[in-house]
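Quick note —
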Amino acid sequence: MQRDISKLSPQLRRKQSLELFACRPKPLSDEMLSSWLLRIALQNGMKPQSFCNMLWPRQSFWNRSIDRYVSLEMMTALSVATATPLANVRQLSLASYEGVLFPAIVRNGNTPWVLPLGIFHRKFLRSGLVFCPSCLATGEPYFRRRWRFSFATVCLTHAVALQDSCPECLAPIQPHRVEMGNRNPYTVCPVYLCSTCRYDLRSMPDSDQAKSSELKCERASADLLKLAVPQLRIASEHFALLRHLLSMLASRRARLRPFREAVSLVTQQPIVIGWSHQENISLSFDAMPLAKRRVFLGAAYWLLEDWPYRFLNLARSSNLRISDLTRDFPNMPQTYAAMAAWL
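Predicted structure written out below.
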């Protein structure tokens, strides 16, 4: 059992943390910062809240998305406590994709491509943490960085659809809330149990099989994130274009309705025309339920298959103007601007 160091000063807590942590697991492939932090805490028999209070006393932690932003001081303390290079700790954050998926992480608000969690008093109001049951059941269970992105809807390893909530109670996945309310700082509760009803997420029924086209396109997007620095512009332009197409397909603008109808007819996805929130307010792509995002991604990838001819033909038949193609596209690649001029 861990020694109780709650009465030590913050300096002594950090100084003694290395020797106190009997288990110091290293980050796994594509692991999120929050997932790694959970594994460290739980493998040492501590609840995530107690663990964080020990490392960062008197600092709030789980009331925000730590995968989007965590201070350098906190990352340094975690690096020292686990004997992990600081550069490796930084790599676990979603901020490592700045300049590729988004210009910069938005600290107080939504960041493009990052699934919103809707955090309120350390609770997730939105299903922004998705997972693959088969991945959690294989080897050491942990949550991948790719699962936090809105363009990730299928598991590239098991070829099934990802899941965004507990099938038993329909609550968002919140592994940081294990045994919340229990004053005992220690726990053996694993990350694969629903924190609301304790359902074993590994035992979920088989998910929908992913289509071969889905796997091909999402794998291509995932591979772009692995490009070396000199080729990052290629990845940046790909995701900028993909996001713009999704914006056009999900838009409620009347001028784009003929275009959406044409895409819907060819792809046989009526939701591309009729998607709206139950209060008749349009939702951004990132805030859509996972099943709906699969539909819009499929339509966008279909447009990219024969780029730009398929897109231009539908735009012309829908009587779109150049302004319709370039509106609300702040980071427009020069190649796209030149293509729009062909209209």
